[in-house]
Amino acid sequence: MENFIEVHTISDLGDNGMSLGLYCLSCQRWKEIIPNEWLSSGKPNFDYVDQKFKCEDCGKPPEKQVRWKPIKEQVRFRGLSPTEAKMRSK
Ligand SMILES: [Zn+2]
After folding, report:
1. DSSP 3-state assignment of 67?
2. pLDDT (0 to 100) of residue 77
């Protein structure tokens, strides 16, 4: 697989224009790791694969999802306005 990019650290994510999304199933909340913010705080070789992330609210380990674009940009393409999304979840 020639196109496969190995991404293990936060700087790898940043190099490839990616970010890391953390999703807590219990709280149904997204948190996003922005590579540039981590790089500027001096953790470029931080291995996110081994990292035990915790949900800030419930302390459970969230799902990790590598994203090609920041979450905010992706949400815009989903076709549901925030109001519609709310109605559906009821
Ligand atoms: Zn949670």
Report:
1. strand
2. 47
Q: Which amino acid is at 55?
A: C
Residue with tokens 């306005």: 81
The pairing of strands 63-67 and 19-24 is antiparallel
Give the Å distance between the CA of 61 and the centre of ligand 1. Answer: 8
Asked if 20 and 66 touch (Cβ cutoff 8 Å), the reply is: yes
CA atoms within 13 A on the CB side of 36: 2
* CA 44 to centroid of ligand 1, rounded, Å: 26
- Per-residue tens of pLDDT for the chain, all 90 residues: 556 667 888 888 888 888 889 999 999 999 888 888 888 888 778 888 888 899 989 999 999 988 876 555 555 544 545 554 555 555
End-to-end alpha carbon distance in the chain: 43
